[in-house]
């Protein structure tokens, strides 16, 4: 749950998320390119030849707010622990989280709705790149951070 002290569920460790830099953010979470290696057999059946170790995520986090995130000294290749805003889900009766769950023991980032459990994953990711911009007179600070799971 978002508190008055924390205006977002996003956590970026060790850099942090300054106030008024991540309200109403957008985060994508998608498999990396190597997660699937699809091919057709001689009989036309679609198969996956990828090794399971490539089942990793990439993410883009973007926002326009009143301040920039703490990106000074952050460079491509650096490792961040990311408590995601985006949720993953599974069938409660037969599944379990495939990644660590964001949050802490007092308030885990999970919820159950009907037959499904939703959780925000905690991922160890490398910075691939980022962009920042400012619309001077409007005071709009825009930023985007590209990440891939290690």
Report on this structure.
- With 150 residues, the protein is mainly β.
- It has one domain.
- 0% of the residues lie in helices and 48% in strands.
- It is built from no helices and 14 strands.
- The strands form four sheets. Strands 1, 2, 5, 6, 8, 13 and 14 form a seven-stranded antiparallel β-sheet that branches.
- Strand 3 and strand 4 form a beta hairpin.
- The radius of gyration is 18 Å and the shape is globular.
- The chain starts with 10 loop residues before the first strand and ends with a strand.
- The mean pLDDT is 91.
Structure summary:
With 150 residues, the protein is mainly beta. It is built from no helices and 14 strands. Strands 1, 2, 5, 6, 8, 13 and 14 form a 7-stranded antiparallel sheet that branches.
């Amino acid at each position: 749950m978002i508190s008055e002290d924390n205006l977002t569920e996003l956590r970026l460790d060790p850099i942090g998320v300054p106030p008024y830099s991540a309200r109403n953010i957008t985060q994508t979470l998608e498999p990396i390119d190597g997660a699937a290696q699809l091919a057709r057999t001689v009989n036309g059946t679609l198969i996956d030849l990828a090794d399971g170790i490539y089942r990793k995520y990439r993410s883009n986090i973007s926002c326009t707010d009143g301040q920039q995130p703490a990106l000074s000294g952050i460079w491509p290749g650096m490792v961040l622990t990311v408590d995601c805003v985006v949720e993953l889900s599974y069938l409660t009766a037969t599944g379990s989280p495939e990644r660590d769950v964001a949050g802490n023991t007092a308030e885990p980032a999970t919820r159950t709705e009907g037959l499904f459990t939703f959780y925000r994953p905690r991922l160890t990711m490398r910075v691939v790149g980022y962009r920042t911009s400012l619309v001077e007179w409007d005071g709009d600070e825009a930023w985007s951070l590209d990440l891939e799971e290690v």
